[in-house]
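Hi P.,

Sorry for the delay on this. The queue was packed all week, but I finally got your sequence through. Input first:
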Amino acid sequence: MTLNLLKQFVLDPFVRVAVLSSGGKDSSAAWWWAMCRGWDVTHLVTVRITGGDSWMFQVPGTDLVEHQSKLAGIPWVRVETEGIPDVEIDDLENALSALEIDGIVSGALRSDYQKSRIERMAERLGIVSWTPLWHQNSLQHMQGLIKNGFQIFITGVSCEGLDNSWIGHTLTPESLAQLEQLSKKYRFNVDGEGGEYETLVVGGPHLPGHLKLSGEVDWDGVRGVFEISSVQAIA
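Then the structure:
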């Protein structure tokens, strides 16, 4: 992709992009970033891992992106893959090749592994890859999300320092300050980039309404998740 062509995309208000979304805070922030540029977000694309794990993509809770897409009126593309390294990016590439888009927007923060593979895939497809959150300051990133109205619901925790009281909690400025102190004490990433916790954005500036979740906490004494029984979209 030449520099002149990249500049053309940046300046063109009619750019068509797909957003790679897990439903969590970072992909939601990237989605909003594209909207703020006046771009046409044509699809939300979710990679659903059918195997046990993935080096590239979030595993739990990704089916909930369907509810976000319906609320926003944006088509949802679900890409199923076993999570095998190299094969999973091929599966994503095959799905994107069927879309009429100029680029892909993702919420990568610090994973060089993820960012480099998405960029190489985009180059093969002849589109642009944007990672607008890349290397943002962790705490400032989280503070900015809450300040701008993102409702960040914690769907699971899996690190020392975070107990079951955090599961099912929607972050506030006060609880983020508490999370910051715990991250310093127990040495985990305040933005959850290391998998310390997982999130679902249930409302925010990128959505014309919000999602109401019902369910219960499943806690084993060390880690746990919010088992969602129903999702209600409220416009």
